[in-house]
Specification:
The protein is of the alpha+beta class. It has one domain: Glutaredoxin. The chain has six helices and four strands. A four-stranded mixed sheet has the order 2-1-3-4. The radius of gyration is 21 Å and the shape is globular. This is (2Fe-2S) ferredoxin domain-containing protein. It comes from Kineosporia mesophila.
Length: about 160
């Protein structure tokens, strides 16, 4: 006598219970900024020398706290991003359907890192990514330094 298998539906778990893909998450928890901080050898050394990182960890505790205070925020430490000429680099993107991330250069400097930790929990990241309204002050300088060289067409 052969055992007949019951046809499985795509949403069924092996135990027969539905898999709760993302329905269990509330909207405010599923979206938010993703902060990717370069912790390659040069960026980590710059952060330690400037005092924005510790000997054991190149990431600043203030950046961790600001990301935790941000609804849906995620902090990711990456390896070398390959832009060592810019100092410590941080990329800010958006979870699920992110436009082009905002790159910030020189984030080993205490003033820029403080500006980022103040800007991150508010509406700044969403406006910068979706409306392309960049911040002013230290973060504007950091974004401008991280942008590639502007190609100006030759004049008449």
């Amino acid at each position: 006598m052969s055992r007949e298998r019951k046809p499985r539906r795509p949403g069924d778990h092996l135990a027969g219970r539905p898999v709760p893909h993302r329905e269990h998450l509330r909207e405010r928890e599923t979206v938010g900024p993703v902060v990717a901080a370069c912790t390659g050898p040069r960026c980590a050394a710059l952060c330690r020398m400037a005092g924005t990182g510790t000997p054991a960890d190149a990431l600043n505790p203030g950046l961790r706290d600001a990301t935790r205070r941000t609804p849906g925020g995620i902090l990711v430490s990456t390896g070398c991003l390959g832009r060592c000429d810019l100092g410590a680099v941080i990329l800010v993107a958006w979870r699920f359907r992110s436009p082009v991330p905002v790159a910030l250069a020189g984030m080993h400097e205490p003033a820029r890192l403080t500006a980022l930790t103040d800007w991150l929990p508010g509406p700044g990241p969403r406006r910068a990514l979706f409306e392309r309204v960049l911040p002013v002050g230290e973060l504007a300088d950091a974004a401008a330094e991280a942008a590639g060289p502007q190609l100006i067409p030759p004049g008449p």
